[in-house]
Amino acid sequence: MKQQSLDAIVDRGLAAVDDDDLKTAEDALEEAARLGGENHVRVLHLAGMVAWAQGRLDQAAGYLMQAADGAPEDPQIYLDCAECLLSHGEDLDEAEAAARAVLRLEGADTDSIDQARLLLAQIRLSDDDTDEALELLEGISAERKNDAAYLSIHGFVLMNSNRPKEAAESLGRAVAVDPEDPDVHYWYGQALEVLGDVAGARAEMLKVLELDARDLEDHEPVSEELAEDLRGQFEALLEDIPDQVLKLVASAPISVQARPSTTQVEAGADPRGIITFVGRARTDDADARLDSIVLMRDFLLDEIEGDDDIPELLMIGLVDELRRFFRLEGLEVATGTED
After folding, report:
1. Cα–Cα distance between 227 and 309 in angstroms, integer?
2. How much is the CA Rg of the chain, to the nearest whole Å?
3. Contacts of 127 (CB under 8 A, 6+ apart)
4. For a Cys staple, 291 with which of 4, 126, 279, 315, CB 3.0–4.6 Å?
5. pLDDT tens digits, one per residue of 311-325
6. 147-215: CATH superfamily
7. φ, ψ of residue 100 in degrees (nearest 5)
8. Assign residue 270 a region: left if phi > 0, alpha if psi is -120 to 50, beta otherwise?
9. Order of strands, edge to edge, in the sheet holding 289-296?
10. Angle between helices 92-104 and 110-126 (to 10 degrees)
11. In the chain, where the domains are located
């Protein structure tokens, strides 16, 4: 009777998390902890999901790993643990172990096994193992292969396997199934760009700009003080790049704005880029012409945990834009040199 009551309370709390009703979820967690104890596997699971919903990723990961360590029979505990760790970008070995536990779990249903394979494919891709990622995706049930989640991950893995035509086909189907997912539009646009469909790529990136605007945090207008500080930090970075790269950007004026504009994205700017080069990007027929450099304040503020993170993000953004605008594919992030 006690276990039945505990299960009902935890189920109520998990449903509340799914509905973004955190007050009900917190009340259920408190009640479940009193009844079953804080270290009960199901209580730990609920605690992890509540912490995750509140944005406390470190605590969420800790609770969910503890729950998974309890060797539960519920595959959802392992799946939530793996997904949380993957989204956190840390402890990927633990994430992989949790997902693989589902594949070994007696009684795991087809849907849970498919979810585990999707997670494992993403984890293996993060380790640049595209071959195993594709093998894992191949083993997913036929019904799941029509879902947007499968199609988008499959397309992303194919892009990383240098198979852009197949990637575009899969991502195009994903966009048709779920047209409101900006990430899928972003990957689809990248695939179209590689295939030389510039107009199609621009259209997808404009859609990313539109969809991302719904979820971006509101910030104050860019102050001149902040703009000057960011310009100063960016100029300091330029002192550390090789002369042959520096000469490409040294004379361009630097400005700061909140986020990319429609006009900039129409001209080829990355709608999620921290840095945008304004001008004419290099083509097969013409050299690049750089008119100005724009730093995107909102993206920086949304990504950093502290001011110390700004230089690294600016450098990553600079290298990405140098690659795109000047076609410096061999440029290395760590060394700032071209192969």
Report:
1. 17
2. 23
3. 92
4. 279
5. 999 999 999 999 999
6. Tetratricopeptide repeat domain (1.25.40.10)
7. -70, -25
8. beta
9. 254-257, 289-296, 275-280
10. 150
11. 147-215, 224-326
C-alpha span between 10 and 13 (Å, rounded): 5
Provide the terminal-to-terminal Cα distance of the chain, rounded to the nearest Å.
67
Helix, strand counts (H, E) of the chain: 17, 3
* Helical pair 148-160 and 182-194, crossing angle rounded to 10 deg: 40
User: Quick one: tokens of 226?
Assistant: 């902040």
- In the three-class reduction of DSSP (H, G, I as helix; E, B as strand; rest coil), residue 56 is classed as coil
- Confirm if 208 and 272 have CB atoms less than 8 A apart: yes
Return the CATH class of domain 224-326: alpha beta
| Residue type at 56 in one-letter notation | R
Q: Predicted confidence band at 302 (pLDDT cuts at 50, 70, 90)?
A: confident
Q: Name the strand (E) or helix (H) holding 93.
A: helix 92-104
CA 257 – CA 252 distance, rounded (Å): 16
Question: 293: which strand partners?
Answer: 254, 277
Q: Where are the beta strands (DSSP E) in 243-288?
A: 254-257, 275-280
Q: Which of 287-291, 302-306, 314-318, 322-326 has the lowest mean pLDDT?
A: 302-306
Which one, of 293, 281, 205, 206, lies nearest residue 246 by Cα? 293
